[in-house]
Design goal:
The complex is a heterodimer of chains A (113) and B (114). Chain A has no helices and 11 strands. With 113 residues, chain A is an all-beta fold. Chain A is globular and about 45 Å long. Classes of the chains: A mainly beta (113), B mainly beta (114).
């Protein structure tokens, strides 16, 4: 099976600071990566994705960085807000192996007002 | 509806009973996924449907688990002879494009096996 994991299970940041959530993956053939946010009692919500032909992609207040050399990706959240408190998952896919997306364990982000 | 709908939202059953969990995907979405999320854990892939193609069942943990998708829309996940380790939240997601990572998840069905 695939191994997608996170460096830290919990992260606390002050409101207004930037947050960085990390994710390691083991399958060097993975070529598509996605970040999801899951609030308590809800299903995961898509945040941003990146394909392996890119090393950086920006969205609204979020940036995903991909380092294929060390099989690592990160999600940066600028000016973190209380509404950003949630569990964040990275997911990966190897296109030639099918359309399964394998999720990591998740990092719980708490924003301190 | 506007989003993915799952029912029941909560199900408590006794060990050995069969359960059925239902998923109504977003209208027009051809891809449908089932995942399982145990307490404090990530999402475990179970099964994937795409249009009329044969489903990818590679994630089903045992032959007690099965799923079908009728008419390319509604899906039912069936767990036979439930065990305590089946207790989890079962999440359904749909997507409009094959291979797209933008999955739209329902709120899940929480299964508790006593």
């Amino acid at each position: 099976g695939e191994s997608v994991g996170l460096h830290l299970p919990t992260l606390s940041v002050q409101e207004g600071d930037n947050s960085i959530i990390n994710c390691a993956y083991s399958n060097s053939a993975s070529d598509y990566f996605i970040w999801y946010k899951q609030e308590s009692g809800k299903g995961p919500q898509f945040i941003i994705d990146i394909r392996s032909n890119m090393d950086k992609r920006q969205g609204q207040r979020v940036t995903v960085l991909l380092n294929k050399t060390v099989k690592h990706l990160s999600l940066q959240i600028a000016a973190t807000q209380p509404g950003d408190s949630a569990v964040y998952f990275c997911a990966e896919n190897e296109a030639t192996a099918g359309n399964q997306f394998y999720f990591g364990t998740g990092t719980s982000l708490t924003v301190i007002p | 509806g506007a989003g993915v709908s799952q029912s029941p939202s909560n199900k408590v059953t006794e060990k050995g009973k069969d359960v059925e969990l239902r998923c109504d995907p977003i209208s027009g979405h051809t891809a449908l996924y089932w995942y399982r999320q145990s307490l404090g854990q990530g999402l475990e892939f179970l099964i994937y449907f795409q249009g009329n193609s044969a489903p990818d069942k590679s994630g089903l943990p045992s032959d007690r688990f099965s799923a079908e998708r009728t008419g390319g829309s509604v899906s039912t996940l069936t767990i036979q002879r439930t065990q305590q380790e089946d207790s989890a939240v079962y999440l359904c997601a749909s997507s409009s494009l094959p291979g797209s990572g933008e999955l739209f998840f329902g709120e899940g069905s929480r299964l508790t096996v006593l």
